[in-house]
Amino acid sequence: MIYIGVTGWGDHDTLYQPPIxxxxxxxxxxxxxxxxxxxxxxxxxxxxxNVEKWVKDTPESFKFIVKAYQGMTKHMRADIPFExxxxxxxxxxxxxxxxxxxxxxxxxxxxxxxxxxxxxxNVQYLRYCKQQMGNMxxxxxxxxxxxxSDVYRNKTIQxxxxxxxxxxxxxxxxxxxxSIPTVLEVTSNQTLVRFHGRNVHGxxxxxxxxxxxxxYLYRYNKQELEEWVSRLxxxxxxxxxxxxxxxxxxxxxxxxxxxxxxxxxxxxxxxxAPRQLDLF
Length: 280
Prior knowledge:
The protein is α/β, with parallel strands linked by helices. The chain has one domain (about 1-265): Protein of unknown function UPF0759 (TIM Barrel). The chain is about 35% helix and about 15% strand. It contains 10 helices and 8 strands. Strands 1-2-3-4-5-6-7-8 form an 8-stranded parallel beta barrel, surrounded by 4 helices. Helix 4 (about 85-100) links the parallel strand 3 (about 65) and strand 4. Helix 9 (about 220-235) packs across helix 10 (about 255-265). The longest helix has 17 residues, at about 85-100. The model has no long low-confidence stretch (mean pLDDT about 95).
């Protein structure tokens, strides 16, 4: 089955008309899509009280793709706010128990930064991450092209298969070492596909000022989405579950593109949250 959603649920204004309070947004979001990425978990390990609310605001079949905390993925240049790395992983794992309790954990996404290249040291760290996460389903997404160079591509895919990593396939600008190609390989019984847009200028903009406002400023056109229809159908045949997330929301385009792709694939999701009806 192909499940389509977007990253986060707070900024997709086209879903919330007329405007509603932030506390209501997830329940309304869940009337449109069956999955969501919890990007807030990247910035801070979330308290269980937050997770309790989120799982209760969503239907029984709803799934969360939880982004790994930035300290776990080497994004933090300074020291991590924990005594040890083991303690950091323990805190993150503890925060995910509620998703598991309700059967709503789709996977944890480890997205590594552009400076995390293919080296022996980094391969060892990936192995450490997987050991810390135990049997929890974990997706792996790179941002450095060295992992898929001619020399390492096949070895990278085989490593993910051997270690049980879910492959996070990306559609993103191709701008050198700071991005990865679209590699349509399956490494487990689940696969994640993430659409970051194709805004080359935004992707290469220095990370200062309003860089987040333009990095994912892109709207996929019909032809670009049609390219993915056949790709997704082929991937679906190799997976129990195929999760697809749109992250191109600097201009508010992610939700609209996600709905377009759902229509193109003629998908109908059962068990969504009931949608409120307009009076007129």
